Automatic annotation (TrEMBL):
GO MF: ATP binding; ATP hydrolysis activity
Keyword field contains Transport: yes
The organism's place on the tree of life at top rank: Bacteria
Record SMART domains: AAA
Pfam family of the protein (one): ABC_tran
Protein name, UniProt field: ABC-2 type transport system ATP-binding protein
ABC transporter domain span: 5-230
Length: 284
């Protein structure tokens, strides 16, 4: 099966700062991948390289194309959304639809209008007259009307309240995604996308510190609420991270059999946000 994105030794430097530091990764088709990292970790640079917006060192193929030298051909099969809250306030919905219809060859006006009919958006409305929820719906209508093999979302729900963020991802999952499409999303709201992801990439200081499928995480990582009399025994197993919880030590372990850890205290599978915090602190 041909990879949607294939990177080998991908690097990008800005002066003395290495925004991407010799990273390699593969994203197969039909996946929803979360690219997660702190500010300045290299997420935006990785997206720019994938979208052909910046030169780079190393090997990179996106949908079989070199994104820097074959960007025009690549973008016919890619949809990129930066932030649902960012649309020109002066533009009318129908004018935005006209524009996208002219610039993207795989845009279906019929699909877009069919989605808008399920909302309260009048095509004559200007963006400045819309609520945040309506702006989300307009953006979704545009996205779901584009037959793109790769959808790239960079902080797509930034600035939206939790209800609108939830409705955005639900519509994306239920009305857009299928096994022929691949979605790459960056966000700081880790807990809100955890349930839709098939894969996760944690990036820090230009390097990937975790590249895994979501299905593989429960068998690999375990959090233990360690009984006080077992703390030294637990520390000997070299936890990734430790913090205090209800007077006990909560420790996160990587690759230690759960049955062994159960002897130390109560065990559970950590959430993605907890795992992110632990790995980021451990790598520093």
């Amino acid at each position: 099966m041909t990879a949607i994105i294939q990177a080998r030794g991908l690097s990008k430097a800005y002066g003395a700062t290495r925004a991407l530091d010799n990273v390699s990764f593969t994203i197969p088709p039909g996946r929803i991948v979360g690219l997660i990292g702190p500010n300045g970790a290299g997420k935006t640079t990785a997206l720019k390289a994938i979208l052909g917006l910046t030169p780079y060192q190393g090997e990179l193929k996106v949908l079989g194309y070199n994104p820097h030298s074959e960007r025009q051909r690549l973008m016919k099969e890619v949809c990129f959304i930066a932030d649902t809250a960012i649309l020109p306030r002066w533009i009318r919905a129908r004018e935005l639809i006209d524009f996208v219809e002219h610039v993207h060859p795989n845009f279906s006006r019929g699909k877009c209008m069919a989605f808008l009919e399920r909302t309260r958006i009048d095509p004559a409305m200007k963006v400045k007259a819309m609520s945040k929820g309506m702006v989300v719906q307009l953006h979704l209508a545009i996205v779901m009307a584009i037959d793109a093999r790769l959808l790239v979302l960079d902080e797509p729900t930034l600035g939206l309240d939790i209800l609108h963020r939830k409705s955005f991802y639900e519509a994306l999952l239920n009305d857009y995604f299928d096994q022929e499409k691949t979605i790459l999303v960056t966000t700081h709201q880790v807990e809100e996308i955890e349930h839709i992801l098939s894969d996760v990439l944690f990036i820090q200081d230009g390097r990937f510190v975790l590249d895994a499928t979501m299905d593989s995480l429960p068998a690999r990582f375990t959090e233990v609420l360690v009984n006080p009399d077992r703390r030294e025994q637990a520390l000997a197993l070299k936890p990734l991270h430790e913090n205090s919880l209800f007077g006990k030590s909560a420790m996160l372990f990587d690759g230690v059999p759960r049955e062994r850890l159960a002897e130390l205290g109560e065990t559970r599978t950590p959430g993605l946000a907890d795992l992110f915090v632990a790995i980021m602190k451990e790598k520093h």
